[in-house]
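Deviations from the work plan: none for this task. Representative record:
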Amino acid sequence: MTNKVIDYSDKELLVLFRKTESRDHAFNLIVRKYQEKLYWHIRKLIIDHQDTDDTLQNTFIKVWNGLDRFREDSSLFTWLYRIATNEALSFLNSKKRRFLLPLVDVENQLANTLENDEYFNGDELQLKLQKALLTLPDKQRVVFNMKYFDEMKYEEMAEILETSVGALKASYHHAVKKIEKFIVEH
Amino acid sequence: MNELKNTGRGLSDIRKGNPFEVPDRYFEDFSARLNDRIHAEKGNSKKDYALTWRPYAAAAILLVVALLAGGYFLINNQGSKADRLFHTEISQVVEQELYSISEETILEVLEVNTYETPAGSAISSEEAIEYLMNEDLGEDILDAL
């Protein structure tokens, strides 16, 4: 099933989606094709599995509602990543607002989640890296994750995050410096 | 950790693999759960739509009723206003005209139009009956007198 999904190009999936009779099927294929990539992208930002699940569902609901208006100015992959990133950042912002917590408390809360998360299987250094990441501003964390873990090209990232390659390079450089400092100090 | 502190090593020493996991069959079941939610939201959005337009419809009906009632009141009110205005204007005109007529003229007119019995011409009842008899009135009328 997975191989069949991957066999369809994004263009083919979009053509299928635009036909009423194959709309549901095409959407299912899009979900199956991108659910894992988007899940991990969101999970690294939100940390908690349940919150990630909610955010991923919200992302695909937005995709379902907006795919008719998708004009293919960017690739489907870029568009999906952009929606997922925005949803994740919105979730984090709403969490901060909802609990009226200062930034540092949200970081501490997420760090505690990491330590007690039954679905976190990293070693001590990986846990330290994740805690270091939580000290970064959310957008810088996005940049670091996309470059370091997903190994994306800056040009791709620039398209998804709608910013310049230069700004991304600078952001990643600062993120690495802060993380290394955190690791050495803790 | 201490090793990292001492050597000053950083990111390159950390295993790059994904440290997170998901519950069993999470990805296999995800699209089915998503479909359920999308269909549930479709249903809710229809209900929401119905719930959304009903208060607006009620408000619109109330507004129409209020406008009709207001219009009716306004028209009636304007009519009575016009009547009152008309009567006021007529009174003012008559009053102004009366001011322009001198009292002497009024008295003169009243004197001319007042029926006067010529002085010393009082008519007795016998004379009246005689007059009426000469006028060929019927006997019934004469009896009634």
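The interface with chain A takes residues 1, 4-5, 8, 10-11, 13-23, 26-27, 30-31, 33-35, 37-38, 41 of chain B (CB under 8 Å).
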